[in-house]
Amino acid sequence: MSDTSALYHDLVHSRRSVRKYDHTVPFDHDAVARALTLATLSPNSSNMQLWEFHRVISDDKRQLLAEYCMGQNAAKTANELVAFVVTPYKWQSRAQLNASQVRQAFTGRDDATAKRALKYYEKLIPFVYRNDRFGLLGVARKILTFCLGLKKPMVREVSKADLRVCLHKSSSLAAMTFMTAMRAEGYDTCPMEGFDSVRAKQLLGLPHDAEITMIISCGTRSDDGIYSERHRVDADDVIFNH
Ligand SMILES: Cc1cc2nc3c(=O)[nH]c(=O)nc-3n(C[C@H](O)[C@H](O)[C@H](O)COP(=O)(O)O)c2cc1C
């Protein structure tokens, strides 16, 4: 094992979901900023970066958000809470940004690769990301891809609901990068989906169409901060070779 893989192995093994943090240990909020900067480098669907990271640091807001996290210890005892949020309504500006970056990268080139890349952000992305309130466009896309899929391989996940899954996948990857980076900084985290999303969104001033993927608490584990041994099913039950 190389030094790097040994280091990563230790990081993954030492990350646990911590439910109780020790406030006698000083907490460096800059570590959160650094870890979030790394999180922005996470892979994400079509590089649309339809995510936001909302830090809750002040005592009063943190306590309120902890209450909205159903009063979980992991939230109540944290030094900081970070909400990982998806922002589907920003798709147009992100598609334009990607298209202009493609244009810049391919300046002076008029080849098939350049054309394909531009078409991706100017035609395909709008086709898949545009949605109406009731998801009817998505249903139409679903029917279309079903028909086209009878003849050739097709991406089938094109409904409004599929898009939500797509955005939460990317946001979750950022969350994982963040938690690993926090561990590398010597701190602990706990990802939480047990929260009142309506109240949490209100507190963070998020628009109706934003969704919180998870809220991650941060701090230093207390001696009794990990509730049990780590249990996982056998690798044979989840890893399959084809
Ligand atoms: C999407 C997601 C949501 C979770 N929500 C909560 C939660 O609300 N409260 C909590 O205490 N732990 C929560 N967890 C932590 C899991 O319980 C924990 O990851 C699992 O038991 C494995 O333990 P480990 O993280 O220490 O390896 C969540 C984890 C994930 C990935």
TrEMBL record:
GO molecular function, one term: oxidoreductase activity
Superkingdom: Bacteria
Domain (Nitroreductase): residue spans on this chain: 14-219
Keyword hit for Lipoprotein: no
Pfam family, one: Nitroreductase
InterPro entries reported for this sequence: Nitroreductase (IPR029479), Nitroreductase-like (IPR000415)
Keywords: Oxidoreductase
Family stated for the protein in its record: Belongs to the nitroreductase family.
Protein name: Nitroreductase
Organism in which the protein naturally occurs: Photobacterium aphoticum
Lineage, highest ranks first: Bacteria, Pseudomonadati, Pseudomonadota, Gammaproteobacteria, Vibrionales
